[in-house]
Each structure stands twice: as structure tokens, then as C-alpha cells.
Amino acid sequence: MPSFGYILGFIAAALIVGRLSESGASRTIGKTASLMVLGNVVIYAIGFTWLKFALNVSWSEALALGLLPFIVGDLIKVLAAAGLLPLAWKGLDRLKLSR
Prior knowledge:
Elements: H1 4-22, H2 29-55, H3 59-66, H4 71-94
């Protein structure tokens, strides 16, 4: 189960990013992007470390298999979501639906 580390990483990232978001750290584009990058770092750190040991490969091979192919796509998603989330917060504020 080489991908199990990514599942663990998603859980850890959700806990960390969720806690920080509750304190209002997702209201601006910069803070939102930072949170998303932090979440990705947590996912990758746990995921590719698990992958390295599960497949018994070198660190560079683990990076090549479990991180490098996904960075560009994840960066595009971070930029898109970081631009949209603060707009969603403003819309909720305008409708008086946010906390």
C-alpha cells in the first residue's frame, strides 16, 4: 500500500489547515495560498516518506514518483482556489451567512 501515506497526510493536513482556517486564516488570497501550500507540504512529506519505505527506493526515486509529477497541477489548484475562496467569504459576509 504505497499510497497509504498520502491518506495519512490528507488527514494530518485537514487537521492542521482546518484548525488554522477556523482562526480566520483563509480570508485573504495570500493567507489562503499559504494554508494550501502548508497542507500540500504536509501531505507530500508524509506521503512520499511512506512511499519511499513501502517501495524500498531512494529518496530521489520517491520524490520522482510521488511528488514531482504532481507539483504543477497542485500549484494550479492552489492558485485557483486561493483566488476563489476569499471571494466566497465576501459573498457569505454580504449575505450575512458567515461567522
